[in-house]
Amino acid sequence: MSTLEIRDLHVAVGDKEILRGVDLTVRSGQTHAIMGPNGSGKSTLAYAIAGHPKYTITSGEVLLDGEDLLGMTVDERARAGLFLAMQYPVEVPGVSVSNFLRSAITAVRGEAPKLREFAKELKSGMDALSIDPAFAQRNTNEGFSGGEKKRHEILQLELLKPKIAILDETDSGLDVDALRVVSEGINRFRAHEDTGVLLITHYTRILRYVTPDFVHVFAGGRVVEEGGPELAEKLEAEGYEAYTKASA
Amino acid sequence: MGLETKPVSTLHETTSYNVEDFPVPTGREEEWRFTPLSRLKGLHNGTAAGSGAVAVDVDAAPEVTVETVSRDDARLGRAYVPADRVSAQAYASFEKATVITVPRATAASRPTVVNVRGAGGGAAYGHILVTLEPMAEAVLVLDHRGTAVYADNVEFVVGDGAILKVVSLQDWDDDAVHVSHHHAALGRDATFRSFAVTLGGDLVRLSPSVSYTAPGGDADLTGLYFVDAGQHLEHRLLVDHTVPNCRSNVTYKGALQGDGAHAVWIGDVIIRAEAEGTDTYELNRNLILTDGARADSVPNLEILTGEVAGAGHASASGRIDDEHLFYLQARGIPHEEARRLVVHGFFAQLLERIEVPEIRERVLAAVEAELAR
Predict the structure, then answer these.
(1) B8: pLDDT strictly greater than 60
(2) Residue B369 pLDDT grade (very low, low, confident, very high; cuts 50, 70, 90)
(3) Potential cystine with B205: which of B154, B211, B216, B234 (Cβ 3.0-4.6 Å)?
């Protein structure tokens, strides 16, 4: 049983305050969707929790099972059980997918997987996401299409088995087939692991495949409305206009 | 266009066997301005005491002939005329030369390794001539270790249709000074692959150059260097396209770390008026790992004909991309390990080009050791 607690989180980029007091608790077994218009601070929330150096926490706290995440380095947060599937996965020249994943698994599990078991694990993970096995030898994310990058993020999710996964616009830029494959990966992960998911999205499309337990509407750097899956339906019908006006 | 108005290059100036034809450098000259002359131990101004010991020992493939010859051997200095004062000093001062010959249409069955070992003392001078007769093929390793104040010239004569692959390792002790010219003269349809790896030494100034004697020559010059605190590692490339339809590619990459680490890369490519159909590209990249390190990178591409197949250059020096580190660390990989992966990645493509597996392993291990410092 794990819990991610975000309490009154304020985050700035340079002098500009982006998040203005976010409160949110995600427990294992739960899936929370954060929805909101562009520029509402959804991605800032994701990157600030993961520890990206561009974002400054001005006040508030983030706890993972009671431990202060904000006091940890980026890699310590990941090893504590946090995972961020990125909207724009980074290309790392000269570092093969296989080498990268083996280093990550070694770091997160605390010991190097046996070469043969790793190969098996990697192959079945790639098969499940319809990733061409040749990708294992390619440089990480280099020359990958948008869909390939997102599948690769979900592959990491399934291999690293975090306690809490934040998926930042994992659905953006995907065609219907890729969206289905990626959603199946997320659902497989949700079914097998006792994990909490924070799904950040602009669109309701992915929520037809990955059903959330809670929906939070983000506008102006804070949560402005909360509800169940039916809130997503309402947003689908009415859009964000009411919220953007209110926060402006 | 009359002969009087034919464009001439400004990059490739005096060449001579005579030391006195080159004034003592002051450090203001274009070709010397990056080099800390005070650390040359007198190699540049005639004050170096010539009492040093550098042994040259060749472990040759069975098909390859190795001779040690006196300085008046008629074969020496035919492919290369010294292009600066230290090179001329070396040419005027060496006592014995090593001559390595691969016979016509013969493929050497294994790499030939030239061990150059410095045993200290004052200045020492050397000369090596490597000749591949037409259609011959060979892999050559030049392995520089130990400590020395050493100036030398290496001539590679690559005959028509011959293929020569050279790895030159500058893996000296911390106090060594090495100033070296490597010149390759390529015959018709000859192939030359050079891989320079410079890791050790207080000051290393290596000047690889290529000339073409007939069309169809193909040269790849690759380099990898890792500069630590206080080291000056300089590479000065010159590719002189004087005949039509030849190709050259220069790719040098270096990493720098520590106070006073200084890398210099000069990439001169001349495409002369006669050299129509030339295809050339040169690239230098520097990865600056810490404060206090400095990289100077100067590509010069001089095109004197309008008829080229391709010509370009690129140079970039910068720090490790924080986004790369963030991505790796966000997957639990600790900072130091992430940095190691990124530097490996930076060199990975180059390392794959090293022909000799043992050398590749050694270079990889050396890069690891540098990163662990």
Answers:
(1) yes
(2) confident
(3) B234
Per-position DSSP letters for A82-125, written without gaps between them? EEEE-SSPPPEEEEEHHHHHHHHHHHHHSSPPPHHHHHHHHHHH
Structure tokens at A227: 């509800």
- Angstrom CA distances, B138 to B70, B76, B112, B130, B364, stand at 25, 20, 8, 10, 23
Q: What is the pLDDT of residue B7?
A: 61
Q: What is the pLDDT of residues B179-195, one digit of tens each?
A: 999 999 999 999 999 99
Q: Could you tell me if residue A124 is inside a domain?
A: no
Q: Scan residues 153-212 of A and list those with Cβ closer than 8 Å to B.
A: 156, 160
**pLDDT value at residue B224:** 97
Q: Is residue B221 part of a domain?
A: yes
Residues from chain A that touch B326, judged by Cβ atoms under 8 A, are: 51-53, 74, 90
Min mean pLDDT across A24-28, A155-159, A166-170, B354-358 is at B354-358
What token pair was written down for B26? 């002051």
Query: Which residues of B are less than 8 Å from A156 in CB distance?
Result: 331
**Rounded to the nearest 5 degrees, what angle is found at the Cα of B163, between the Cα atoms of B161 and B169?**
155
Range of the domain at B164: 3-320
Compute the distance between CA of residue B294 and CA of residue B53 in angstroms, rounded to an integer.
32
Counting every residue, how long is chain B? 373
Instruction: Classify residue B81: in a domain, yes or no.
Output: yes
Taking CB atoms and an 8 Å limit, are B331 and A160 in contact across chains?
A: yes
* Residues whose CB is less than 8 angstroms from the CB of residue A136 and which lie 6 or more positions away in sequence, other chains included: A96, A97, A98, A122, A126
What band does A203 get if pLDDT is binned at 50, 70 and 90?
Answer: confident
Confidence of residue B2 (pLDDT cuts 50, 70, 90): very low
Asked if B347's CB is within 8 angstroms of A73's CB, the reply is no
Burial class of residue B296, CB neighbours in 10 A (0-12, 13-18, 19+): middle
In degrees and rounded to multiples of 5, residue A210 shows phi and psi of -115, 100
Q: Which domain holds residue A15?
A: 3-89+149-247
- Chains A, B: CB contacts within 8 A come to 81
Residue A91 has pLDDT above 60, yes or no: yes
Query: Which amino acid appears at position B372 of this protein?
Result: A
Q: Amino acid letter at B45?
A: N
A240 belongs to a structural domain: yes
* Yes or no, beta carbons of A104 and B328 under 8 Å apart: yes
* Other C-beta atoms lying within 10 Å of the C-beta of residue B17: 13
Phi and psi of B158, rounded to 5°? -105, 110
Alpha-carbon distance of B342 to B320, in angstroms, equals 8
Question: Total structural domains in chain B?
Answer: 1
Measured distance CA(B177)–CA(A158) in Å, rounded: 53
Structure tokens at A1: 């049983």
Contacts (Cβ under 8 Å, ≥6 apart) of A51: A69, A70, A72, A73, A74, A77, B326, B329, B330
Does residue B95 lie within any of the structural domains?
yes
Span between the terminal Cα atoms of chain A, in Å: 39
Pairing of strands B247-256, B278-288: parallel
Backbone phi and psi for residue B208, each to the nearest 5 degrees, phi listed first: -85, 135
Read off the CATH number of the domain in which A241 is found: 3.40.50.300
Residue B240 has pLDDT above 60, yes or no: yes
Residue of A nearest to B352 (CA): A94
User: Is the dihedral angle over the CA atoms B12, B18, B23, B24 positive or is it negative?
Assistant: positive
pLDDT at B335: 95
ipTM confidence score = 0.96
Assigned token pair, A116: 């043969």
